[in-house]
Design brief:
The protein has helices at 8-32, 38-60, 63-66, 72-92, 98-105, 108-120, 126-143, 153-174, 180-199, 208-234, 237-240, 246-259, 265-296. It is mainly α. The protein starts with 7 loop residues before the first helix and ends with a helix.
Length: 297
Amino acid sequence: MSNTRDNPLLGIALLLIATVFFALQDVITKQLTAHISVTQIMVVRFAAFALFALIYAGRRVGVSLAFKSATPKMQIVRCLIMCTEIGIFAYSIQFLGIAEIHAIFSCFPLVITALSVPMLGEQVGWRRWLAVSIGFVGTLIIVQPGSGVFNPAALLALLCVLMYSLYNIFTRQVSRHDSFETSLVYFGVVGFVASLIAVIGRWQTPDSTTWLLLAGICFTSVTAHMMLIKALEVTSAVVLQPFNYFILVWAIVFGYLIFGEVLSMHEVIGAFIVVASGLYVGMREYLIARRASRAST
């Protein structure tokens, strides 16, 4: 597969496949939480991902080289933030619908844009700030704080959004010094070790159905990340970003077909506002990146 990032149609197709598997991963997670603890789900999931990361890095640059980081402390911090986010997400999905939690989660690109100013020193123009502000209004419409329909678990989802955004910010920072393979290996290994420590004394032997679901979550997780990696190899991230919102589409479909979930009207309106704002921010970032690319040639 070429690394020239000159095949956007293939990259978009691969990303869309990845979003299907990411959504299926959440469906299986919701089913698993009825059988075993979140920590057990995480340790099995990270064991599979760590194995995948080591094999991938071993073939690309070698395992020993992948472990050599210029920013090991920041790598560990970003991984622990993401581990915590995954645990909170898995816990909150017991109380929120698949589509509902992804409707809330769709505001994460806006949070990243807002955090990139103080944490990365990036410049954000008034148009993007306006889009971010409108997107946050959409998030409030979804969550409806102070209303009779407010679900306290939505606060956990918003906490996940913040943590996932911080993870992305730290990932951008370490990518200035470390290779993609190093970040991948650290995420898998640190996540496995952290979840293994968390599960000590809490492990319960799964039954055959639970083992099948655990195998399913490992398969969907590894497949989704493989598709994502391949997509990024042939298409730049700024082009792919708008298509990440398709996970909300699959979440709505799977939530309805498997759990009988239906978004309320205020959630649909709020999600539409958030996604529209995020797409606008993505478009502006694409235009800015294209101008910078033309200026450098």
